[in-house]
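Readers outside the structure-tokenisation community will struggle with the description of the input data as it stands. What matters is that the chain and its backbone geometry are given together, residue for residue. For illustration, here is how one protein appears when written out as sequence plus structure tokens:

…
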Amino acid sequence: MTNRRNFIRSTALGAAALTVTPASAILKNHEAGKMSIGVAREIITPKLGGLFMGYGSDKPSTAIHDDLAVTALSMTYEGNSVLLMSVNVCLIGNNLCEKLRLLCGESAGIPASQVILAATHTHSGPDTTDGGDTDYCNEILIPKCQAAAKAAFKEMKPATVGVATTESKVGINRRKLLPNDKVILGQNPWAPYDSEMTVISFQSENQKPVANIIHCAAHPTASGINTEVTRDWPGVMIDRLEKESGAITLFFNGMQGDVAPRMANGGSTGDIHHAMEVGAVAGIDAVRAYKNIRLYREEKMQIATGEVKIPHAPLIPLEEARQQLAKEEAGKPHRWSEDNKRILKSILQSYEKGETGISYFTYNQTLINIGSIVLIPIPFEASSEISFRFRAYSKYGHTLALGCTNGSNWYLPTQDQIPRGGYEVERFLWSGPRLANNADMHLINENLRLIENFTR
């Protein structure tokens, strides 16, 4: 995973951020008391020759294996509207994400806070971090996302919804534990991963499939250090369910921070052939879940908004920060040198300004409820155990945490993983202002508090 260079302490997205056309002025086919949906897709494949964001980011793209896309699903119920957007890129930088939500909301006629923008996390796509491939973002990504947002609200029809789950072995825990107690990226068959795949399907009043959502968790890194543009394994899965159902399908990755695609090579990355193999298995799983849907119902849709607040860890002692910075500046440069130096300098600045008290990472949150389903955007690459705990603590049968959504911050491991270290923990400690070790529990409890705003 590449470095996230920017973070935001708080994101101010709301109706007051800009003037929008009321969604009711657009929704001519909307029927009172019924949920209406619309769906649209735009191709966002980059020009060849650009650098990838994930593995092999120093190598330009040489071919297109399959097109990247942004897929948008609009939903309206009793005057409330939301827009779900699934984008085939690795991560969307916080500032870019804020801009896209504002612009897409403006195009759709809804507040930016009601635009849910998710990156599927393919590592074989362009650099869409803040300060990344600005030409791609300005010329392709932004206008295509706006077009999809607008089109999704153009033709909306009443819809019923069905949901089912299945066990999928598309993923496997990637925190491989060596005999010397060192954690590296690989495959760990005895460590946890979320094997639950959920398919949500929408039908029109004449029982024709209109749109699907697939939710499961694993890094789209099967194609490895690859120079072909590709959606990686999720692309094969999406295409397979679309062929089976005849409906446009969105993919939302789950808590995949410590989950690799399950490949025969025993690693966390492979090549384009591995991506196709993993995708084929995932496609079979998705079709099985889809066919397990037994009942489509009229459901109401609800939106809950609020602020999520996670405490930062106490600053390391001043002298320790000075010593670590001196060591970084004198030592041999490595992949994370600039990150580490930036964080250490910010710690020293905090001491100089007297900012040594309790502080928080905050962001504005929007949750969506449809019947037994709750969608929880998570702007982190969080560990899979967090999915289990959300489902265990929630009163809703299908509580789905959407990773890499509405922002792009550092990894968020569970508290018990921190003592062992490893890649995810290193990035948690050094990619931004360090969060408290129990940030996972704060994240869960803050969102559970917002879920209480829904009425059954």
User: Anything to note?
Assistant: The CA atoms of residues 254 and 310 lie 20 Å apart.
